Amino acid sequence: MGLSVVILAAGKGTRMKSAMPKVLHPLAKKPLVEHVYDTAQKLGADEVVIVYGHGGEQVKAGCYHFKAKWVEQKEQLGTGHAVQHGLEAVNLKNDVLILYGDVPLTSVESLQLLLEDFENKIALMTVRLETPTGYGRIIRDKHDKVTGIIEQKDASEEQKKINEVNTGILAARGELLKSLLERVDNNNAQGEYYLTDIFALAAKDGIEIITSHPSEPWEVEGINNRLQLAALERIHQANIANKLMADGVTLVDPARIDIRGQVDISNDVFIDVNVIIEGNVKIGTGTTIGPNVVVTNSTIGENVTIKANCVIEDTIIGNNVDVGPFARLRPETYLHDNSRVGNFVEIKKSDIGAGSKVNHLSYIGDTEMGKNVNIGAGTITCNYDGANKHKTVIKDNVFVGSDTQLVAPVVVEEGATIGAGATITKNVDKDNLVISRVPQKSINGWERPKKK
Ligand code: UD1
Ligand code: CA
Looking at the predicted structure, is the pLDDT value of residue 1 above 90? Predict the structure, then answer.
């Protein structure tokens, strides 16, 4: 039997007080609804249907890469009405799982448990809460069978004491769901078509309702305001940090690392405080990441030392490399094994060969650098002529003196030495020494002008 997932995402999200639709607000840099979409993919859904309403075009644009069917719910007349719309795009022979665009952290495991063995039944995820206020309460008979769900606003004082609540997450065959929803009306305190009304109807028809619980209560927490968003972000980050530590990564303070993406961090990696890791990042064993480092979409090898305050983006770093403090590695940088990039150095779209050093205050851009090159302090590759970018090639064993400008396009052949303060505008031959500076002049007996 196939699986269709319907994600409800039509709500306005008024309490976010935002021009951006609620489900696009990011958790770990990913829109809330994308967390739910990804979960549906991991469950192996054959089709995903998203019911959208408020800010529809914005939501669609934010989710342009989804393989999903979009169904518009023009007026938000209730969760039952929303699911009815969603079912219009669903293969009704499938099992249908209802998820919510503002409930981002439901685990695949808890959903698999819900979907286990529910053929011809309705599967409902419920949770027991100390403070059930606001939620729909689960009504059970004396045999503990679910006979319905009563919303907070329709509940009697006695029913309000029930602390088993509806998470909203449920699954049933599409045909069954459709036929039950056709019988739901809006005669209730909110004048809405409640999805939850299908349970009393099903119970009357003798359809069994089976329940399961999430492993953790935060898995079914929804987001209505930015306080709840921040709280779930912290829970999500703590989960990632706990997993890393269990896998042998040292986090000096697990509350001061944020991971926003897919990471593969080996054991015996040491990570200091206030580190942010984004996108796809891989870090090899024995590597140390200093405080206040931001790493985005990069691969870092083994036994690398990244010192404090580095910003690293779209970069590949080999083994035994030292970087920083205060280095900026921009996209398409490749630091080969045993190389060294020191403080206040910016590198862009360049290869730094094995054993080469760029230690102080330099800009290296569009450069192909060989092995064991030494770049003196304050060296600049002048890669931009105001219109186009040009390449600098520095071959193996070159020594570049401090305060050199290499005006690209230019090639410095193997073993060449460039004296300090040079402006290199022509190619440099192999093993040559190049000096380009005004000869030093001394004026004997010169007097400084005096103030009149
Ligand atoms: C709903 C449940 C309640 C449950 C709670 C869990 C119903 C009637 N009640 O209540 O039992 O305890 O969720 O959080 O189902 N939505 C639409 N279109 C609509 C209405 C809602 O897409 O017309 C979406 C909202 O964007 C939201 C979700 O459905 O993501 C839930 O809607 P909401 O109005 O917040 O339901 P609750 O009153 O919280
Ligand atoms: Ca809600």
Answer: no
- Which residue has 């770990």 as its token pair? 28
Is-contact 91 49, C-beta < 8 A?
no
Of all ligands present, the nearest one to the C-alpha of 99 is 1
Q: Which of 199, 143, 133 is nearest to 163 (CA)?
A: 133
Q: If you take atom 21 of ligand 1, which residue's CA is the nearest one? A: 79
Rounded to an integer, the average pLDDT of 342-351 is 98
Burial of 117 from C-beta contacts in 10 A (0-12 / 13-18 / 19+): exposed
The residue count of the chain comes to 452
CATH 3.90.550.10 residue window(s) in the chain: 3-220
pLDDT at 12: 82
Whether the model clears a pTM of 0.85, i.e. scores above it, the answer is yes
pLDDT of res. 54 = 76
Q: Please write the tens of the pLDDT for every residue from 146-180.
A: 999 999 999 999 999 999 999 999 999 999 999 99
The yes or no reply on domain 226-434 and CATH 2.160.10.10 is yes
* Location of each CATH 2.160.10.10 domain in the chain: 226-434
- Give yes or no for a contact between 289 and 273, defined as CB atoms under 8 angstroms apart: no
Is the Cβ atom of 13 under 6 angstroms away from ligand 1?
Answer: no
344-359: average pLDDT? 98
Residue nearest to atom 26 of ligand 1 (CA): 11
Q: What is the mean pLDDT of the chain?
A: 97
Q: Is 73 in the pocket of ligand 1 (CB under 6 A)?
A: yes
Q: CATH homologous superfamily of domain 3-220?
A: Spore Coat Polysaccharide Biosynthesis Protein SpsA; Chain A (3.90.550.10)
